[in-house]
Amino acid sequence: MVTAVDVAVVGAGPAGLATAHLLTAAGHTVRVLESVHAVGGRMRTLRTDGHLIDTGAEMIPSADAYPATWRLIRATGLDADPEAVPLVRDALSVWWKGRARRHAGRPLGLLTGMGLSPRARLDLVRLQLRLGRAGLDPEHPERGGLDEATVADLLRHRHPQLGERLLGPLAAGFFGWPQEAAAAGPFAAHLAASGSTATWRTYRDGMDTLARALAAGLDVRTDHPVTGVVPGPDGVLVDSPAGAFTARAAVLAVPAPEAARLHPAAPPAERDYLRACEYAPMLRMTALLDAPLAPRGARRGFALLVPDDPLLGVVTMDHAKHPGRVPRGRGLISLVTRPEATGALMDAPDEDVDRALLARAEHILPGVDAHVRGTVVHRFPHGLPLPRPAALAARPAFTARPLSAVDYAGDWTSLRPCSEGAVASAFTAAERTAAYLAQTREPTPIEA
């Protein structure tokens, strides 16, 4: 049986599910296809032995910083429970000279130091003021006036401690970006939009909470890989070993390289942008502990930037993110690699990754290896968009493309490396797809 639907959405991460939710709310029939067995994409949460393990994204800021995300939180009723999206206390610290320096990324840190000298802190304020006056738009980073500048260029004439201890490690640890490769526009726009780390929140029941809430009201088919989408006069053929079908339109809510593979006949403006969108791979190892360890100086802290380590970029104390993440008396940490180490370890056996990262974490969490009860390694070859200047240059033609039967959603469409970039892209994809459906014929009848 070949069933015609209005829209096929490929990918059940936040971008795909949000797109499907918006189109379904507008009265269209939508089917979501996901190649793996669970929804969430890079916001999946594993549930193991009473532990909630966030495999990718870790937190969200306030509604001012992430308006699209919070619009869906309200639409799904998650905001009805005031404890469903709690604040993360002491969200970000910096490891410097043998201890965690708290309050990084928030105004209080300008007083307490964050491991920066007074001159470096003053220069950080100057940079923040400059970015605030620049009118940066995270949905249009190519308009920020930074042209072909990289993150390294942005920081080159600033106090060296900003690049060495704070902003450089932030780009490397959270986004997987080498400073010399990543365009400054998306980085600066994201920092300006995200605001203080004092507003960081998490989902009490796992970072896949919103994805699961959206999926509950949708036609989602997991374990359903898609091998190609082919537009034609009768709609879009969605090809899959699990069963092909036709749809009036399709939205590819997958990483740009996957979208290029699934839609090789894309028009030139789309194809050029898809090819220009590169990704930084991400690798993290999560360790289940028999006790809630903490680095010196941040007993309650969550995320710790590690500026001067050859392997480690970030250490997160996931048990400090929310007490429901672990059984009472247990601990949960994640170790995230620096860009220079990710490539070398990406294809290494899990035991080699465990050994290398735990050895590097020893000086931060003394004796950690003896407390490990189990580990999980998370590999994302397509971790986060790596916005090179070439992608910024190709983006205006991509955003100006005409309506068509195949559209796109994902953080890469705006080069915004976060879940808000993915969710915000869904509003654009849903609007464009609905407009395309409005100017085309009615759905094809069901054929037996």
TrEMBL record:
InterPro entries: Amino_oxidase, FAD/NAD-bd_sf, Zeta_carotene_desat/Oxidored. Residues 15-432 form the Amine oxidase domain. This is FAD-dependent oxidoreductase. It comes from Nocardiopsis changdeensis. The lineage of its organism: Bacteria, Bacillati, Actinomycetota, Actinomycetes, Streptosporangiales.
